[in-house]
What we know:
Elements: E1 7-11, E2 14-20, E3 26-31, E4 38-40, H1 45-49, E5 57-61, H2 63-77, E6 78-80, H3 83-100, H4 107-132, E7 141-143
Antiparallel strand pairs: 1-2, 1-5, 2-3, 3-4, 6-7
Helix pairs in contact: 2-4, 3-4
Amino acid sequence: xxxxxxxxxxxxxxxxxxxxxxxxxxxxxxxxxxxxxxxxxxxxxxxxxxxxxxxxxxxxxxxxxxxxxxxxxxxxxxxxxxxxxxxxxxxxxxxxxxxxxxxxxxxxxxxxxxxxxxxxxxxxxxxxxxxxxxxxxxxxxxxxxxxxx
Length: 149
């Protein structure tokens, strides 16, 4: 049976993507919460594809939900300089205002947050491509995991 890819999952606090390889196999990439980039990791493919509803694995997810979940985790675990982090500050400002006012986000606020998350996701993808092409990083990142080191 052929598997339709890409497939998207949430593996504990990290998002996970499964793609087809040219040879007909499958390859996985996992969000690295120390860097914000996706790294090759095919070791979880069987586990996520066979996950049950009571596991710490959600999915398969839609691409939109995958982007949303990825950006929630990046925003939570990472900090730094540059336009990506300015957009995260905007998202956090929207959420903080709603919290202070004791309410949920409005539909307009939610739509804005989703649009900003799509934008930051694309910015991360563009940055990964730049680095893969041999260019230096355009921003610095600090992870909650690396903060004490």
